[in-house]
Specification:
single chain; mainly alpha; Arp2/3 complex 21 kDa subunit ARPC3; two-stranded antiparallel sheet; 6 helices; about 75% helix
Length: about 200
């Protein structure tokens, strides 16, 4: 029931033109960061997830779900690399959903002095789930499904992905800890206190 309520509140965010514009700007940020992706073959290193995390944190699961899908489709249109694979779009949507479900909390009239810490912690937890579920399981399965990995290479690819994600995760968490409170503060400074912690 709480999840349904979160989706309903998140969908309502789209009625506000300002929210749609901010979401669009964050999608543009994600696309810009994506352009600097380092492709290692078995895995990609980039920090585009930060923009999706911010969308999920500010506007919830419904908005972040669609934003994740839009980012994948736009990423393909801007820099097509072979055929379009719809499964990756669904994975992008799932990534947005994770951040939206875990990090979204209304910002109105917050009175909790630890609000920024709690929201940042939620985004860190979402990132851990994102790494485990999306990066290690879903993307590896999609690569195998589309034939990018063979039975003989899947074990090596998983091991390489685990090493890459374990090495990258501390940097991800530091960036989250530095950037998410700044995003919240800038949002409140610009638009006023419009959302409360649940």
């Amino acid at each position: 029931m709480k999840i349904f309520g979160s989706f309903k509140e998140s969908a309502a965010e789209l009625r506000n033109l300002r929210n749609v514009i901010v979401t669009g700007l964050l999608i543009a940020v994600s696309m810009t960061v994506e352009a600097f992706t380092i492709n290692l073959g078995f895995a990609k290193i980039n920090f585009a997830f930060l923009a999706i995390a911010a969308i999920g944190m500010l506007y919830g699961p419904a908005v972040a779900l669609f934003a994740g899908g839009i980012c994948d489709v736009l990423g393909y249109l801007v820099a097509p690399d072979g055929a379009f694979f719809p499964l990756y779009t669904l994975i992008g949507m799932a990534q947005g959903l994770i951040y939206g479900l875990i990090a979204y909390r209304k910002l109105t009239e917050r009175t909790d002095s630890k609000y920024f810490f709690k929201v940042t912690l939620r985004v860190c937890i979402a990132r851990l789930i994102d790494v485990l579920l999306i990066n290690l399981v879903c993307n590896t399965a999609a690569n195998f499904h589309y034939g990018f990995l063979s039975d003989r290479t899947v074990g090596a690819a998983i091991a390489a992905r685990v090493l890459k994600n374990v090495a990258e995760l501390p940097f991800d968490l530091v960036l989250i800890t530095l950037l998410m409170p700044a995003v919240l503060a800038a949002y409140e400074q610009t638009f006023g206190k419009r959302r409360t912690a649940a």
